[in-house]
Model the fold of this input.
Amino acid sequence: MAGMGDNAKAEKAKAANKHARPNIIIFIIDALRADHLSCYGYGLKTSPHIDELAKKGIIFENAFSCMNATEPSVTTILSGKHPRTHGILHHGNQVTEEEIEGFTKTGTKLLQEILKENSYMTFGMDWLSRWHKRGFDYYHGITTSDLEVKRSIVGIIKGIPLLGQIATFAFRHMLPKRLTDKVRVSLDGKQITRKAIELIEQNKGAPFFMLLHYWDTHVSFNAPNGIYKKFLKDEHNGKKYGDFLKNVNRETVKEFYEGILDQREDMATVIAKYDGAINYVDRIIRQITSKLEAEGISDNTIIVITADHGESLVEHEILFDDHALYEPSIHVPLIIYYPKAVRQGRFSQLVQHTDLMPTLLELAGLSACAPKDMDGKSLIQITNGNTEKLRDYIYAEETYNEEKATLRGERYKIIKSVSGKGTCRRCRIIHGADKELYDLETDPKELNNIAETEKKALQEMEERLETLKSHFNTKREKSRIANAISGIKA
Ligand SMILES: [Zn+2]
Ligand SMILES: [Zn+2]
Done:
């Protein structure tokens, strides 16, 4: 660190590390598929800083989200429970009041609530402003009234013939970017970074927990102009962005997609823009880790890098998030940097987001406070050298646009429609088929559906999937009953 003598640095570190418990920062990088990070084998150098953290920390090569949609997935990260167990299965305006009430009735304890009870300062910046914001001392999100004001202004302008078209055209093509950025509800990650640095400065002497949710990697891929050019590949994809929009059936989604990227753009350019956004997030989160180093608290801070779900970039003719359960949509990065207490290395076991909360509680010395009804298991046993399998299968769902579930082992993976409702509401087709079975050993890209020919394997996988689904459903109901009883006793 430039400009600070060794003694001063040591003093600062000593003062900051007075508290025994480690600080914890979870970076959720929205829609970040694992295989586009260089440390997960991507051919382009998208993530030099995250690669460094991964090299000094632990990297889970086979980590999966439990849902291909943001809100249920974030709830899982903060609760250690599968969506079916915590009860939030949908996203956005599809989440019903009953669902939210049902979630409350499970008595689910969130990570930040437990940490707060144990003297942590808790900070959340994820813009969603939903049920999971409770337990934060400071929370930064978009309020419902922000969105309502924005929607009504847009509605009025659009309602006036011609003016609506002129305003939309001007917004997209004529106004300087710095002005349009102000008009949009801005989700630029540099705001999160700036605030996080300020909070670190103010709270460096106490244990703190931060949830930092970056949206730059979500379509429309926010990054400084031109950064994507570094990631343009020579070969073209052959498809234009507009070709994919023809499949989009939902008007609001279609309008949103039409407004964010040029329809004439080759898909290779769109993918380069996604990579550029990853590179941008990589740069701005480095400012936070540099701040931790400058304050001498880096050694006492656990850093987690993950994504709420992945991103489909033309695979299976599917674009972006919230539909499909193929690998690009559910295979997420999971990196834990805490060299003081965690052995370095790469681990190939099947892990899920449910495992994160028990892992962090163990690292913070708070396993005794871990809720008994979590679905996940602490990953520290793996990093300590225990080679016993944590699980044989991961389970994930997509219920926002289509009702589908998947069970994925090391070899076979089944994707099936739930209750015959597999048709994608966004695209009005069934992606793939009602039942799909893939042999990932010979077909890692899931191109050859063997459901018709491998009947025995299909039946076994289907039975396992149904058993696991019922297990989560039963567990949710048990939590509700137990919570109701404890309420009566209290
Ligand atoms: Zn998301
Ligand atoms: Zn779809």
Notes: Residues 147-151, 175-185 have pLDDT under 50 and may be disordered. The longest helix spans residues 455-489. Residues 30-31, 70, 218, 308-309, 321 surround zinc ion (ligand 1) (CB under 6 Å).
